[in-house]
């Protein structure tokens, strides 16, 4: 019974897509709301950050870099968000996979930044984009990404 | 006398920089105000656009992509702004240079997008960044870039 | 009246998108049918070709390279299709823009291959992908691209 | 005696090539048959995948992306197949080498994706190309790659 439910959940997105050949997308309004929430959280914590939102094709909808953030964080935030769109999962999953024997193989995976701070954005089970955060510790980046996602 | 004045004007920026080893920079607040003004103008005209503001190193401070804009406009807007930072001039200058005999040589210039829509941003004669616009005709992109710059 | 109609056509795609935040997409079945039609046409003409179909984000759904085609045609076909997705227009539009004074500026446009053989694919006015063809003369590439598109 | 046999086996491929300066190659028909077999297997298992076949130079002959597969799998499948062509071995060999002390050095090997799912394709001992699969777990990707290869 549990396995059946799992299978239904697994295939649900595909069925929705297949039914009518239509898929949801992220608007600039969505991306701005998500980014605003992330910025509010990072300011509340006293962290300066780069906040990126990508669409389902991995293209930028919104990017903002707070004053004084290291410029390296721009490509890191872009890379984390791209990873989450390209692989439909949080970057932390790859970070965790790199612990333990043989985990370094993940470093050879094309387009994967294996550092917490990237989260995929789903609507009705379909990927519509991702948020990527960089500027503080990776755990802190993850906290801000989650705060952004909550606003969607 | 005229030549002397010219020399003074030419070296003025350098002198300012050299005086105290300080240079002005563009804040996220500046970039947001510039981008907001560009967005207001593009909406008033009924144009959908990508609006980019870069810092003096050519790195992104702010990017927003309005709904429905062709994804190609992201790299075009980035390229126009980069050109204006890298060469401290409007991209239209290069577009004009490409008219007439031998103008195609500009196409071999590294990091130059020779299409109107990119404008450098100066403060007290020092370059602090650039705005890049893409999404409509290049002349229309130029109008929106100018509207953004006016808000600085 | 004509201008009004033009404006309606211009904004129609955006309205459809905005209405329900949903957009159509191209399936592998669609891409295969389009590629098959292109291959049939190229064989009927005795041309060997690379046939590419991309999705709305510029990512490959289908690529096939017929025997004996120059390997350079792989990236050319990919580039033409990418251009048509990124700029929502046939690559021939850019090829034509390069004729006449100042036309070489198009060579500075990021992600643009200005050679006939790339066509965007629309569904209900929304871009869903593109076809790119390379292997024969650019006019012949365009003929095969059109034959592929007809099967959609 | 054993050593002599080894030398014969080692040089056998080279001798075949050297004999008449000819080498076998993979046709689009071959690549399609291999890809069809891989697709049949992946559908039978209920997995959605990207299926790539490259030639002996590492250039794409055939690529197909089933509906709903994460877009990251395109570059991963391409990378796995490229690795198998470039190094004439299954990608799993590199994955295994990464286990144990010092294994992470493989992550510095140019053009190596050290994750199961890439297999080289040989004809009469000569490399003619590779198959690369991505979309499910790496072990499952390997199963589908093997199923494709069996059809050659």
UniProtKB/TrEMBL annotation, chains A, B, C, D:
Keyword terms of this UniProt record: Signal
One Pfam entry name: HbpS-like
Signal peptide per UniProt: 1-18
Keyword Signal tagged: yes
Parts forming coiled coils: none
Statement: the UniProt record of this protein carries the keyword Transcription regulation: no
Domain of life: Bacteria
Protein name: Uncharacterized protein GlcG (DUF336 family)
Species classification: Bacteria, Pseudomonadati, Bacteroidota, Cytophagia, Cytophagales
């Amino acid at each position: 019974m549990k396995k059946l439910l799992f299978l239904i959940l697994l295939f649900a997105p595909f069925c929705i897509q297949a039914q009518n050949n239509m898929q949801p997308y992220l608007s600039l309004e969505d991306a701005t709301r998500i980014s605003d929430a992330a910025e509010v959280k990072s300011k509340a914590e006293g962290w300066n950050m780069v906040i990126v939102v990508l669409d389902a094709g991995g293209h930028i909808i919104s990017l903002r870099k707070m004053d004084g953030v290291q410029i390296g964080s721009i490509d890191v935030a872009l890379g984390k968000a791209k990873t989450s769109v390209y692989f439909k999962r949080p970057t932390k999953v790859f970070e965790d996979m790199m612990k333990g024997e043989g985990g370094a193989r993940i470093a050879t995976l094309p387009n994967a930044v294996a550092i917490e701070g990237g989260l995929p954005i789903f609507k009705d089970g379909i990927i519509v984009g991702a948020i990527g955060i960089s500027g503080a510790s990776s755990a802190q980046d993850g906290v801000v990404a989650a705060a952004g996602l909550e606003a969607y």
